[in-house]
Amino acid sequence: MASITKYDTQKGTRWKIQVYAGVNHLTGKKLYRTRQGFRSQYEARLAATKLEFTIQNGDQLTKNKSRTIEQVINEYLEAWAPTVRPSTARAAAGRVKINVVDVIGDWQIEKADLQRYLNSTTDTLPSSFKGNWGFVRRVFRFTLDNAYIRVDPTIGVKLPRQEKAPIEDDSQYWTREQIDHFPV
Q: The whole model's pTM is what?
């Protein structure tokens, strides 16, 4: 619900609107959006309706600095590290730096083409792409929780099918006779 108030200036009467925009999740305080300088009450009501619609749809009302994936990953690792053992945090940070940050770290989070990343990772890192993908999904959920983005770009991304390496011959396996030669 918007409040519309009248105020006087040197140029005449103007109208001001104030719209409730929710609660700041960090401080717990109520957020309000204010606009002023409208020449008529009708113009102010129209602007209030548009602003309320924008808030209900979750559109960004403030200009957030565009972040890169590397910046968001670093924020996520700082928030995530206290919840796991230090050795786990170090190992994950090293793996992520090599497999994710070096590949897509300079991309903007709003413009990330994750299907392209996933397709290229499948070829170059076939054994670890699912683990890396799980980490990327957690990072993008973190960005949603912190309102850096409005839509999760990981939804709808198809995991590429991994081709299993064909076994060319049976020389990889020991025969019964070879096993019998081992001392017991």
A: 0.57
